[in-house]
Design a protein that fits this description.
eight-stranded mixed beta sheet, hydrolase, Peptidase_S33, protease, EC 3.4.11.5, Pro_iminopeptidase
């Protein structure tokens, strides 16, 4: 039977920090086989940061596993910093890290916002890519952002009531700007309170079945602050022009092997975006998981992602 569960926990064999400009320093690590096939893990959010569990999607005897916390996220500094933080600068950071580590070509593995960033990087640098494994597709379009801010209440009314309830009724006509005013406040207590509510809202809607552990992790201070500030910043200021750019530019990467894994009941990133991506990229292996939501940790999604990394061993 194909492998369907995590590899055992591993520690990095190397960690480092790369100063990418006068403001940002990004954290990176390598694990697995130093002479293995390189794979770049791209975390979600934007702003969520990576965790040790993310190394476990890959066979450490085969893959050279590279993980980077993106600008403003996780162990990168400054945490939650939005200056000089755009999709383009993140793509530049990925390319700078590739050069720094002396990697010629690598696989990209990204879920949610990580799928967005993987597509943006691959379409900019197709010659540097071996293949893409994508999960929970997000294309950074206004319809997807509006769904997150308002329409998820159709399926998660309690979570949305808590999210909207943090904002005075008079400001709820524009939840994004109302949240940003608080997330960018000079008062740390105001920033943290808004960040925690935003992050817990997302965590509460991310699994098919209730996950107390996921919700608890979403409320952790560093995670919440990075996620909420960077996510709100990107929703406000970093959409693509034209809006369907990632779909239009798929033709630049259609020659690359790809797997798209999507939970049927993904509420955070609904299946319609994955469907549109696959229609633009019919060569990609498209797998809808019938009993899953958004989280990569759900059994069906986890199994499909690990099976994809096993299959990609043939691409070097």
């Amino acid at each position: 039977m194909p492998r369907s569960d995590f590899y055992p926990p591993i520690d990095p064999f190397q960690t480092g920090r790369l100063a990418v400009d006068g403001i940002h320093t990004v954290y990176w690590e390598q694990a697995g086989n130093p002479r293995g096939v390189p794979v770049m893990f791209l975390h979600g959010g934007p702003g969520a940061g990576a965790s040790p569990t993310h190394r476990r999607f890959f066979d450490p005897s085969h893959y050279r596993i590279i993980v980077m916390d993106q600008r403003g996220a996780g162990r990168s500094t400054p945490l939650g910093e939005t200056r000089a933080n755009t999709t383009e600068t993140l793509v530049e950071d990925i390319e700078a890290l590739r050069t720094h580590l002396g990697i010629e070509r690598w696989h990209l593995f990204g879920g949610s916002w990580g799928s967005t960033l993987a597509l943006a990087y691959a379409q900019t640098h197709p010659e540097r890519c071996l293949g893409l494994i994508l999960r929970g597709i997000f294309l950074m379009r206004k319809s997807e952002i509006d769904w997150f801010l308002y329409s998820m209440r159709v399926l998660f009314p309690e979570a949305w009531a808590a999210f909207a309830g943090h904002i005075p009724e008079a400001e709820r006509g524009d939840l994004l700007e109302a949240y940003w005013k608080r997330l960018d406040s000079s008062d740390p207590a105001v920033r943290m309170a808004a960040a925690r509510v935003w992050s817990v809202y997302e965590g509460s809607c991310s699994a098919l079945l209730p996950s107390p552990d996921l919700i608890a992790a979403s409320g952790e201070d560093r995670h919440a602050l990075g996620l909420a500030r960077i996510e709100a910043h990107y929703f406000r200021s970093n959409r693509f022009t034209p809006e369907d750019k990632l779909l239009r530019d798929v033709q630049r990467i259609r020659h690359l092997p790809a797997v798209i894994v999507q939970g049927r009941y993904d509420v955070v990133c609904p299946v319609i975006s994955a469907d549109e991506l696959h229609r633009a990229w019919p060569e990609a292996d498209y797998r809808i998981i019938p009993d899953a939501g958004h989280s990569a940790m759900e059994p069906g999604i986890r199994a499909a992602l690990i099976q994809a990394t096993e299959r990609f061993k043939e691409y070097r």
